[in-house]
Specification:
This protein has about 240 residues and is mainly beta. The protein has three helices and 18 strands. The protein binds 2-acetamido-2-deoxy-beta-D-glucopyranose (6 copies). It comes from Mustela putorius furo (European domestic ferret).
Length: about 240
């Protein structure tokens, strides 16, 4: 996905990685969390590695080894990762072209030369960028000058957060769902409603425009007037001259 502007893209990914890596307080000092976009390359960071160690093993899950390092030799195990992993600087695990199912808690086990074992846990979460939503107008029903609106932004099979905005302000959390179901009156309608899809790596949105008392459209009335003016203004003097 980053083929054309390799360098800024790489810088961005690194930046993203650094921002998204933080120790979680609940699971001890050695647990890290990394978020990545599918298709990118990721290195799982390790800090406070002992100065001297004999053996070092990276695991995908507690019972699946990925690779082992011992006296300068790296052994790759037969796993989904063969051909896409390497040991980076500081013995961190670098995974090429991560996929959603690479999401896991990775374990690094280190045998020090004093014979003790130490363990690091790193949680990797891989996400696809969210798709572009399209608001579906499920209902616009006018009753006594009130307008019942039902807008859907649902995306199947995605772990996504939905945020609805009226004009540019988010609705209260109680109304945040894949479907927005509201009643508006002449004193509290908004000129546009936006649905934003987001996950930890991306966000996209779609907007519909409201015309009172109870009409929704894909473009705003204001935009129409502006277009009309741009088209008509040069024509009007022409009309006056004839
Ligand atoms: C491991 O590699 C480093 C640098 O390449 C070297 O200095 C060191 O002597 C090697 N150690 C062993 C045990 O081969
Ligand atoms: C992830 O999914 C791909 C295909 O989508 C499959 O080939 C691979 O074995 C899976 N990896 C793991 C670790 O389950
Ligand atoms: C989405 O989920 C439904 C049921 O949860 C399943 O039947 C369907 O095959 C899934 N579609 C995709 C594209 O994964
Ligand atoms: C607009 O006002 C009416 C009447 O007070 C209320 O029932 C409705 O929930 C309000 N709509 C919004 C979107 O706040
Ligand atoms: C949705 O939002 C909650 C709260 O901000 C967050 O913890 C969660 O990770 C988000 N989920 C996704 C898929 O973005
Ligand atoms: C919707 O997306 C556009 C660009 O894609 C962005 O400028 C705007 O801030 C977004 N709006 C909301 C409410 O997230």
């Amino acid at each position: 996905m980053c083929s054309q502007r390799q360098k800024p893209c790489l810088a961005l990914e690194l930046l993203l990685l650094f921002h998204l890596v933080w120790p979680t307080s609940t699971q001890g000092p050695s647990e890290h969390r990394v978020t990545a976009i599918s298709g990118t390359n990721v290195c799982l960071p390790i800090s406070n590695l002992p100065a001297k160690y004999i053996q070092l093993t990276w695991f995908y899950t507690t019972n699946q080894k990925i690779l082992e390092w011992e006296s300068n030799q790296t052994l790759l195990f037969d796993s989904e990762f063969k051909g896409r992993v390497s040991l980076g600087q500081n013995q961190n695990l670098c995974i090429h072209n991560v996929q959603k199912n690479d999401s896991s808690t990775y374990i690094l086990r280190v045998l020090t030369d004093s014979g003790t074992e130490k363990e690091w846990h790193t949680r990797l979460e891989v996400y696809d960028p969210v798709p572009k939503p399209e608001i579906e107008i499920q209902k616009t029903q006018e009753v006594d000058n009130r307008c019942h609106l039902q807008l859907s932004c649902r995306m199947p099979n995605q772990s996504i957060n939905y945020t609805w905005y009226r004009d540019s302000e988010p609705f209260p959390t109680g109304l945040q769902n894949s479907v927005l179901d509201i009643i508006v009156e002449p004193n509290n309608y908004s000129t546009f409603y936006t649905c934003q899809l987001s996950n930890p790596v991306s966000s996209k949105n779609d907007t519909v425009y409201f015309t009172p008392p109870c009409k929704l459209g894909r473009s705003s009335a204001v935009a129409w007037i502006v277009t009309w003016l741009i088209v008509m203004v040069p024509i009007i003097p022409g009309l006056l001259w004839t």
